[in-house]
Amino acid sequence: MKTELDHLAELAGQGRISRRDFLGRTAALGVSAALATTLAGKAFAQTPAKGGILKAGLQGGESTNSLDPALNLSQVTFSFCKQWGEFLVRLKPDGGVENLIAEEIGASADAKTWTIKVRDGIEFHNGKTVAAEDVAATIERHADEKSKSGALGILKNIKGVKASGKEVIVTLGNADADFPYLMADYHLVIQPNGGKDNPNAGVSAGPYKVTVNQPGVRHGGERFANYWRGDKAGHADQIEIVVINDATARLAALQGGQVQLINRVEPKVVELVKRIPGVTIENVSGRGYYPFNMFCDTAPFDSNDLRMALKLAMDREELLEKILRGYGSVGNDFPINEAYPLFSADIEQRKFDPEKAAAAYKKSGHSGSIVLRTSDVAFPGAVDAAQLYQQSAAKAGIKIEIKREPGDGYWSEVWNKQPFSLSYWGGRATQDQMYSTGYVSTADWNDTRFKRPEFDKMLFTARAELDQAKRKAIYHDMAVLMRDEGGLIVPFFNQFIDAAATNKISGWVKNPNGEMMDGYALNECWLNA
């Protein structure tokens, strides 16, 4: 009950639930009327304060970053776009979908035609009113291969988009009951004319207007006076993201008061951070995972025997204990965990087996070292993880050569470019979206080059299947195929571990959809008066 009450209090503090609903839901939990009234008084006293400059020190920024949301790659662009950008919908902490620019989204009986009603009275930063034509153009641009959008994979099913009055009609090739979830993808910032004229302008309808854009250094914005949800977001006068890729420097900036929020606290220092006066660790489990990616179409990884040897040569339990310090769970070489509602728990867990790894390695015919690229920015503890893996692989007679890459340029020059490297994924709202973004053959972000027609066929079949039991069975078979033949090694699923100076700010809400409250921390938290 305590957890549910805390959740209700957080919703009340954010203005996401009325006082009447708060009292009704606490009564349903068996809370007395007197206690419920007291709790309501405290919860609704957490009224957001306006003013000041709210700053975050974030890892995941590079000098090559762009304001074009189609090119969002790492944490800084992910977080900054949610300050200046507005979306059709967003994911709620409970996994549902909240409408934003989309007032309503409805489907035809066969789930192939979707109608998006565009909300009235929302203004872009340039003074133009958001129209159905802007929404249609945004979807069109990201569905065009020329845009190189990270959302391209999930939009492949779209066959037509047209604006009609206040509505946008989207026609799909195959039925897809998950279509509204796709529209929450963080690349799909609604821009004037879809960003076709100038995608780098940083103009949308979010709570902040872009004032500073120094890629790899800092980004900032000032409150947009005409933001349509001004009572719920955009509390600070200004927000600023300082790019601090070094974990020690990031923590020092928080402790010294230069910033009020940081991401990616390393698990090994969590207990130390908890002792810092006024600082709170904000950790939450979700769908994120830290993979080792092998290109299935590039030697020597084009041999499934070699891929299997490398999977069996990983001691996942050791990595979970020493790298994540328990702030996560063991992975099984496919990108889905129990956070997904159609997860199959009956798939055998892969374990460290140096003898079988050695046999598979010998069968592959490969000899010599295997180059593994890593960097501090890949994920917290990525360099140490590579070294632990090097040690466990050696027990199977496999020589791993670690190449440590610089942080600046890692996401543009190493990830999805080099055949064996460490990475991170934040997960997606649904299994279909996760597979479509990174593992269907045509996905621009297919960072393991796993291209199997039978896998694609299963994905499309599952997408059109409205019977959830049948759909789950298909996802089971997809997971087994990827686990046994794919280029993905998943040692563990991580928790998002952020830290906040809660003596200076309020409004933090745990959100399993992504770090920094799924990117919304800077515009939904506020400085204490």
Automatic annotation (TrEMBL):
Entries under InterPro entries matching the protein: Peptide/Ni-bd (IPR030678), SBP_5 (IPR039424), SBP_5_dom (IPR000914), TAT_signal (IPR006311), TAT_signal_bac_arc (IPR019546)
What's one GO-annotated cellular component?
Answer: outer membrane-bounded periplasmic space
Q: Where in the cell is it found?
A: Periplasm
Entry keyword set:
Signal
Q: Which Pfam families match?
A: SBP_bac_5 (PF00496)
PROSITE patterns registered for this protein in UniProt = TAT
Give a yes or no for keyword Transport in this entry: no
Where it mainly occurs, coarsely classed, is periplasm
In the record, what terms sit under GO molecular function? Answer: peptide transmembrane transporter activity
| Recorded superkingdom | Bacteria
For the Solute-binding protein family domain, which residue ranges apply? 97-446
What are the recorded Gene Ontology BP terms?
Answer: peptide transport
Q: What PANTHER family does this protein's entry cite?
A: D,D-DIPEPTIDE-BINDING PERIPLASMIC PROTEIN DDPA-RELATED, PERIPLASMIC BINDING COMPONENT OF ABC TRANSPORTER
Which NCBIfam families is this protein grouped with?
TAT_signal_seq
Q: Which family does it belong to?
A: Belongs to the bacterial solute-binding protein 5 family.
This chain belongs to which protein, by name? Extracellular solute-binding protein family 5
